[in-house]
Design goal:
The structure is a homodimer.
Chain A lengths: L4 H11 L3 E2 L2 H6 L14 E3 L4 H14 L3 E4 L16 E4 L6 E5 L4 E5 L4 H9 L3 E2 L10 H6 L7 H4 L2 H4 E7 L5 E5 L11 H5 L8 E8 L1 E2 L3 E8 L3 H13 L4 E7 L1 H11 L8 E8 L1 H17 L3 E6 L2 H7 L1 H13 L4 E4 L2 E2 L5 H13 L5 E6 L4 E8 L4 H20 L15 H8 L1 H14 L15
Parallel strand pairs in A: 2-4, 3-4
Antiparallel strand pairs in A: 1-2, 5-6, 6-10, 7-11, 8-9, 8-10, 12-14, 12-15, 13-14, 13-18, 16-19, 17-19, 18-19
Chain lengths: 459, 459
Amino acid sequence: MDLTNSQLDALREIVGDRLSINESVLDQHGRDESAFPPVLPSAVLYPKSTDEVSRILSICNSELIPVVPFGAGTSLEGHVLPLKGGISLDMTEMNKVLKISAEDLTVRVEAGVTRVTLNNLLSKEGLFFSVDPGADATLGGMASTGAAGTTTVKYGSMRENVLALTAVLADGTVINVGRSTRKLSAGYDLTRLLVGSEGTLAVITELTLRIFGIPERMSAAIVRFNSLADGVAAATRVVQMGINVARCEFLDPASIRNANKHSGLTLPEQPTLLFEFHGSPANVESDAQSAKEIVQEFGGSDFEWTSDEGERRKLWQARHDAYWSNIHLYPGKRIVSTDLAVPLSKLAEAVQICNSILSKHKFPFSIFGHVADGNFHCMIINDPTNHSEHDEIRDVTHKMASRIIALGGTCTGEHGIGMGKIELLIEETGESAVSLMRKIKRTLDPNWILNPGKVLAIE
Amino acid sequence: MDLTNSQLDALREIVGDRLSINESVLDQHGRDESAFPPVLPSAVLYPKSTDEVSRILSICNSELIPVVPFGAGTSLEGHVLPLKGGISLDMTEMNKVLKISAEDLTVRVEAGVTRVTLNNLLSKEGLFFSVDPGADATLGGMASTGAAGTTTVKYGSMRENVLALTAVLADGTVINVGRSTRKLSAGYDLTRLLVGSEGTLAVITELTLRIFGIPERMSAAIVRFNSLADGVAAATRVVQMGINVARCEFLDPASIRNANKHSGLTLPEQPTLLFEFHGSPANVESDAQSAKEIVQEFGGSDFEWTSDEGERRKLWQARHDAYWSNIHLYPGKRIVSTDLAVPLSKLAEAVQICNSILSKHKFPFSIFGHVADGNFHCMIINDPTNHSEHDEIRDVTHKMASRIIALGGTCTGEHGIGMGKIELLIEETGESAVSLMRKIKRTLDPNWILNPGKVLAIE
């Protein structure tokens, strides 16, 4: 919807000149890292406090103005696109790190602080925040989408690392949920209800996060396999044996090929596993040794191991390139990234299914992922200007998701439902559970103003 | 409420002779391990399937019959007491382990399976389920109360270990939430909404749980301190340094004294820390060594370490006695257990506050807890026949909880709100958040039939 002048005036009374209707600003807030075509908001507001967010929502709720929270715009599922117009609530001016509690291993931040900014501050005290989705997202955005990443196997996702939240409900009510304690059993877990709710239930304004001491030593290892199935089976066994892996990533030959081209590497174009271990010098050596013994049972070859910082980064270069090499190698193309996850025992089969489906189409693709968590991404290259390709891509990705759901998997391990997987959510979890989600949505946001059209179809 | 004959007949049509109105059966379902006086249900039903639970709830919802799910009756907060009468839904005949997926590190169970039964089965395959609240509770009960325990510091609580649930809503609707995958980002986290909801939002009938491989080696360590503050500070530093502790427990001198009397031990009656480490032989030795170096900086003395199974159990005897020794040393008395938790930096202060408040009263008490998680229990001995003591105990425990909440802590780290902490929940999280919990309760259970009077005051 478009905003009337009196609505704009009422909002300006709260944020003053931190309201923009400048075309380029609107345009910047109408897109994310997903493949969905842009949709512009009518205005962008930059609140500076929870109180301002509360007053803004109070007006929007009365006036039925849709509100879409916006962080760094790095979402992969169209989360920040204002499908029904209204305002984009840019949280990046709420960017204060409020309190680092080194002794408690917690930090309190405003929602607009980004992950890298936080870690730069924390590193001075020998601490770090563990969730690493790749992009330099805001922490509010990461909580909203329930972000995860390469370190989730050891440290958990946002779900495990958000201890407490301040959030604003659709009618402007401010709630404080959770506690800065490491354990909590007091009442319904509203923290976990909001984490991953994709901005559809409340606007998160402040977060208390778990942090960790930077490990005394980190080591990395790389190993290659003759077949995908061997590599996946080896990674699965490492997890099953309780080896304390901090990261465990799989790259298919196409991902290695991309990295070789992109970074001038000469890595063998074979299914590859990368490991990282965190702990004392004795522990990381023992963990790497245990992993080596296991992967060799599955035909893993050329096991290389290092705890040298520079060497470690080099070993992991191919993984860092896995996403970005696609962008650089295919200029003008867009990348659709799937986010399927399955129980560990189904992983080799799941990747084979996707490989086989994708091989029947003309799109270049590569596959990599968080193998120790059973979560993998297919990067599918296509032409944004060709509409028949859009339909074909949608058909292919839905077909893969349906097969994975039938295997007991999920259509999204860490990216979220956003606007493209609403039907898949029903297919996966059933009408009854989705109907309950709708009831909860109606309870928290009766006017359906918060990020309409995400997670659930608009009523 | 009492049930009419026609209501009883309708329920008997579903469960046949698995409905009891026998006095001793009712009596057994009117109490738990808490200090609350018994309240009897009008009937006890023993469903054998999700479908039976669905049909029972459908009738109860139409007839406005309260329903209280019952597992092993080991709750500490009066969770299973049918405050408004109605039926007790005893889940112990739903006791099948449906599927052990060793490769996936998951298991699917019916809600009435107990923790020890499950672990006996899993151990044959070299696997274990990690959450250990002490009592041999049912897994449905543990999920409902969001149970945790000594291993939570490494493996998490029920919140982290329940992957998926089948549950029945108040109107009989069956929902499947969550997925057997290790990561999931599909829609609202209904799993975590039900875990810890204490039977007030739905009846859990089946669960998919994360399991782990039994560690190759376990080692244990014991160390004593001159002061409580030193012991707590040492434990905190061990956590901060990222030492991979599997358990880390604190015992005060009174707890040691109880254990000495109870088990004929001769342990020094000093503040004591117990550690357990899980991993490869090299890792558990390195972890114990690192812990030793740290605790010695805080004056920890007589550090003993072992990886011998028998010795390990002996070292931990005092911790196993911490609860049960009270029951045996004070026959005829009842024990009230608090469940406070604070951020790590406040733990020494919090324990001192409780120690000081309790010392002003006549009740024998001891304090122990999950120090690495900032969660500790005060065991307060009192006379169940003396009503003035009841009031005094309630005043003391509420006073302690208020002080802990003011410190940024919680009134319950792992036992739940139950019937005794409803006001404390409001004090802790605020009217706005509790009001939202009430709205969610009304949405899921509009007739307020599910475990009324727990978590939230009856409307």
